[in-house]
C-alpha cells in the first residue's frame, strides 16, 4: 500500500516528510519517483499534470490538497471511478474569513479613495453609508461562504447569500437556485464569489451579471479565475458599472506580466493567497480523512462527482 504526492516542487519534500510522519502505516512516495505503479492506492495532489493519475491502475482515492477540486477534474484522462476527497480545515475557513472581511471592509470604508487622498496630500473626508445599509452578497454558502456571510452579518452588514439549495444562516438572507439569482444580484452592492468552479458556474462573473448588479458595485473573486470573464470585467470597470474589483484567482496563474489587471487603477490583485492551506492543519485533515476512508468510515468532504463539487 503506497501513497503518491504531487504538490509542486517548492514544498513537496516537506509534505512528503509530514504526511509520512502522520501516516507511518503507508509508504509515501514523490510524484516523480513512484516506484511500482501497481502499489499506489492513494494520491494526494494539487494540479496533477494531465494523464498523470491514470498511471496508477489500483488507485482507490484521490485527495485534493485544497478545497477546490477543479484542478483534478480538468484532467480528461482522470480515472472517473475513483472517489475524490477535498481538504478543508478550520484554519482554511479562518483565513478566508479574514480575506473576505478585509476586502469587504476595504470597499465599504473606501480605502482605495483614502489611498488617493494620501497620495495627493489633500484633506478630504470620505463618506460611507452605515454597514446595515451596505448590501453584501455572497455567491456560494458552503464551508467558506457560509462562514464569511455569518461573520459579515455579525459585523453589521446587510448580508445575503446565494446557493444551489436553500440554506438557513442566522442573520443572512438566502436566495437559492437559478430562479433567485437575479434578485440576489440586484441587492448586492459588494459581491463576493466563493463558488466552486463547475460547468454551471464557469464564466458566471460576466457582462450580464455586471449589468444586473447595482451601478457602481464592487466585486471580490476569491474562488477561481474560471468564474470570471476577464474582458467583460475590464469593460464594466471602464463604463462604471463596476467601481472596483479585488481578484485573488486568475485564468492563468501566475497572472502573466503585462496583464491589464496588474496596473488597473481600480483592480487589486492578490496572488492566490486568500486562503492557502496550512500544511500542518491541512496535513492532519488529510491523514485523518484517509484513515477513515481506508477503514470504510464516513469521510469528511467526499466530493459529489455528479455535481462536480
Ligand atoms: P463548498 O463547501 O463545496 O460550497 C460550495 C457552495 O457553492 C455551496 O453553498 C453550493 O450550494 C454552492 N453552489 C455550487 N454550485 C452552485 C450553483 N450552480 N448555483 C448556486 N450555488 C452553487 O465549497 P467551499 O469549501 O466553500 O469552497 C468554495 C471554493 O472556494 C472552492 O471550490 C475553491 O475553488 C475556492 N477556494 C479558493 C481559495 C483561495 O485561496 N482563493 C481557497 C480555498 C477555496 P449548496 O450549498 O446548495 O450545495
Ligand atoms: C485553494 O485555492 C483551495 O482550493 O483550497
What brief labels describe this structure?
Rossmann fold, 309 residues, elongated, alpha/beta, single chain, binds NADP nicotinamide-adenine-dinucleotide phosphate
Architecture blueprint of SSEs:
Elements: E1 2-6, H1 12-22, E2 27-30, E3 40-45, E4 61-64, H2 70-73, E5 84-85, H3 90-108, H4 111-120, E6 135-139, H5 143-155, E7 158-163, E8 172-176, H6 181-186, E9 190-193, H7 207-212, E10 217-221, H8 230-238, E11 242-247, H9 260-263, E12 267-269, H10 279-295
Parallel strand pairs: 1-2, 1-3, 3-4, 4-5, 6-7, 6-9, 7-8, 9-10, 10-11, 11-12
Helix pairs in contact: 1-10, 3-5
Bound molecules: NADP nicotinamide-adenine-dinucleotide phosphate (NAP) and glyoxylic acid (GLV).
Notes on the structure:
The chain is α/β, with parallel strands linked by helices and 309 residues long. The protein has two domains: 2-89 and 277-295, Rossmann fold, CATH 3.40.50; 90-269, Rossmann fold, CATH 3.40.50. The chain is built from ten helices and twelve strands. It has helices at residues 12-22, 70-73, 90-108, 111-120, 143-155, 181-186, 207-212, 230-238, 260-263, 279-295, and strands at 2-6, 27-30, 40-45, 61-64, 84-85, 135-139, 158-163, 172-176, 190-193, 217-221, 242-247, 267-269. The strands form two sheets. The protein has a seven-stranded parallel β-sheet. The chain starts with a strand and ends in a 14-residue tail after the last helix. The model has no long low-confidence stretch (mean pLDDT 97). It binds NADP nicotinamide-adenine-dinucleotide phosphate and glyoxylic acid. Residues 66-68, 277 line the site of glyoxylic acid (GLV).
Amino acid at each position: 500500500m503506497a501513497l503518491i504526492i504531487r504538490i509542486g516542487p517548492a514544498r513537496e519534500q516537506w509534505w512528503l516528510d509530514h504526511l509520512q510522519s502522520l501516516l507511518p502505516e503507508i509508504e509515501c512516495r514523490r510524484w516523480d519517483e513512484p516506484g511500482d505503479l501497481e502499489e499506489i492506492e492513494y494520491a494526494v495532489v494539487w494540479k496533477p499534470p494531465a494523464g498523470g493519475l491514470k498511471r496508477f491502475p489500483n488507485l482507490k482515492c484521490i485527495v485534493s490538497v485544497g478545497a477546490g477540486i477543479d484542478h483534478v477534474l480538468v484532467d480528461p484522462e482522470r480515472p472517473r471511478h475513483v472517489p475524490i476527497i477535498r481538504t478543508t480545515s478550520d484554519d482554511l475557513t479562518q483565513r478566508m474569513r479574514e480575506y473576505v472581511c478585509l476586502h469587504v471592509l476595504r470597499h465599504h470604508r473606501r480605502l482605495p479613495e483614502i489611498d488617493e487622498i494620501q497620495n495627493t496630500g489633500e484633506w478630504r473626508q470620505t463618506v460611507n453609508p452605515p454597514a446595515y445599509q451596505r448590501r453584501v452578497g455572497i455567491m456560494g454558502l458552503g464551508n467558506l461562504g457560509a462562514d464569511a456571510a455569518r461573520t459579515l452579518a455579525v459585523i453589521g452588514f446587510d448580508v445575503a447569500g446565494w446557493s444551489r439549495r436553500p440554506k438557513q444562516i442566522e442573520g443572512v438572507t438566502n436566495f437559492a437556485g437559478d430562479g433567485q439569482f437575479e434578485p440576489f444580484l440586484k441587492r448586492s452592492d459588494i459581491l463576493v464569489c466563493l463558488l466552486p468552479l463547475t460547468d454551471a458556474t464557469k464564466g458566471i462573473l460576466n457582462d450580464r451579471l455586471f449589468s444586473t448588479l447595482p451601478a457602481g458595485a464592487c466585486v471580490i473573486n476569491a474562488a477561481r479565475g474560471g468564474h470570471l470573464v476577464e474582458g467583460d470585467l475590464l469593460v464594466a470597470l471602464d463604463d462604471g458599472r463596476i467601481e472596483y474589483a479585488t481578484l485573488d484567482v486568475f485564468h492563468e496563474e501566475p497572472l502573466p506580466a503585462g496583464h491589464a489587471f496588474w496596473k488597473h487603477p481600480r483592480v487589486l490583485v492578490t496572488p492566490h493567497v486568500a486562503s492557502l492551506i496550512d500544511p500542518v492543519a491541512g496535513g492532519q485533515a488529510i491523514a485523518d480523512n484517509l484513515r477513515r476512508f481506508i477503514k470504510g468510515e464516513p469521510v469528511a468532504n467526499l466530493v459529489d462527482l455528479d455535481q462536480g463539487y
